[in-house]
Design brief:
Helix content is 26%, strand content 24%. It is of the alpha/beta class.
């Protein structure tokens, strides 16, 4: 997600109008849920996805139109467009609209058979607008490691302190919120009804949603306004210990899957930006005696419950030191490369040091799924597949220390 955030931020800073497309509601069998997000700039360049296929094709066409016009696209007849949009294109403001899809075979002519229902919200953001400034502030906050949400809504001209359009028409605003749904852009003064609705609905920080709130001038609930919510959480981190062949391939695979990667090693000739251009940072330590501590060339690290720690070092004694250190952290996934024999020796040594069976059950060893992986690239895929399965709850987060091996021993040194 950081790649998408950086892409959007770069366009806005350079003065380009952009459009966001987000799944705000999904039911039944759909390609993606409310964590799906896509962006497009004025040139038609895109990043991200809302699931592909027919629905995404229609969304891309609508985004191009939204970027090319200052007026919303409305199907006044209310009829389904191309037999696929159950409630057509409904406008929410001059800069946003919603697409509603019924993807069941009976309801459409798209040749799709997944059978789900889907709502995708489009939001156009002008450079140097209130919404653009808020979105950039939201991204900056997420990059510091804080979960953050942003709500887009129409507001009167006196909602903000800076000058607004003289005609007094509503303008598109955006409020940035922290993990407690407290507003962070102090210059904005959204209505209390919006704040109350947000605290009541509590949308998540892992995707998009729509919620309704009552405008002060609207006594009738049928005139309730709608706000578009986007929640962002920092990308989970994969900590790779070992800058060898498997560490290099796993860094590439992890960044492709959306993880932030930090690589640690004591060999400066291997730990270079040229070898690891996608890594968030490289930690050169003096030795593996205290691999998590700060040193002359690195900061201290503390893997947390959302993070993964991969022991891909070159010698069993280093692996043992690494595992002893990582078992004192709250890392959500700990993986150790090597064979069952290597694992048994390291586990026996750690038990002598006082680590329990419960501690060792946190360790996925041999690391990765049993797909017959042999090359560094294949092993990296097996590792990422296991991480994804554990994080999704498909595989348990802990395993028995005497469980059978899941991968063949690597054919090359880590």
């Amino acid at each position: 997600m950081k790649t998408l955030r950086d892409w959007v931020a770069g366009r806005l800073v350079r003065g380009s109008r952009i459009a966001l497309a987000a799944v705000t509601w999904a039911s039944g069998s759909t390609a993606r849920g409310t964590d799906a997000l896509m962006a497009m700039d004025e040139s038609g360049a895109m990043t991200g996805t809302v699931g592909g296929g027919f629905a995404e094709g229609q969304t891309i066409a609508a985004m191009r139109e939204l970027l090319a016009t200052a007026t919303p696209l409305v199907d006044t007849s209310g009829a389904a467009l191309s037999g696929t949009l159950t409630s057509a294109r409904s406008a929410t403001s001059a800069t946003s609209q919603d697409l509603h899809f019924d993807l069941s075979p009976e309801a459409n002519l798209s040749q799709m058979t997944c059978g789900g229902l889907l709502t995708i919200h489009l939001e156009r953001i002008e450079p140097d607008s209130e919404a653009a400034h808020a979105l950039l502030a939201c991204f900056a906050r997420v990059d510091t490691g804080a979960s953050t949400g942003i709500a887009f809504f129409d507001g009167p001209k006196d909602t903000v302190s800076k000058p607004a359009p003289a005609h007094g028409a509503p303008i598109r605003l955006a409020a940035v919120f922290d993990e407690d749904y407290s507003i962070t852009n102090a210059e904005l003064n959204p209505t209390q009804s919006l704040l109350s609705a947000l605290h009541e609905s509590k949308p998540g920080f892992d995707g998009a949603a729509m919620f309704e709130f009552q405008q002060p001038q609207a006594a009738d609930s049928s005139n309730a306004a709608r706000a578009f919510w986007l929640g962002f959480s920092p990308d989970p981190t994969v900590y790779i210990f070992g800058a060898g062949h498997v560490g290099l391939a796993t860094c590439e695979a992890a960044t492709l899957a959306g993880f932030s990667v930090i690589v640690t090693d004591d060999r400066p000739e291997l730990l270079t930006a040229e070898r690891f251009p996608r890594a968030r940072s490289l930690r050169r330590i003096e030795n593996f005696a205290s691999p998590l501590a700060a040193g002359p060339h690195c900061n201290a690290i503390a893997p947390g419950p959302q993070d993964c720690a991969l022991i891909l070092t070159r010698k069993p004694d280093i692996d043992r030191e690494m595992l002893a250190s990582l078992l004192t952290t709250r890392a959500g996934y700990i993986g150790l490369i090597g064979s069952k024999t290597k694992r048994a020796g390291i586990f026996a040594s750690l038990k002598e040091q006082g680590f329990s069976d419960e501690d060792l059950a946190r360790v996925h060893a041999p690391i990765g799924l049993a797909i017959g992986a042999r090359t560094p690239e294949e092993i990296s895929i097996s590792i990422l597949a296991e991480i994804i399965a554990v994080r999704a709850g498909v595989l348990p987060a802990t395993r028995s220390p005497d469980s059978s091996a899941k991968t063949a021993p690597p054919a090359v040194a880590p």
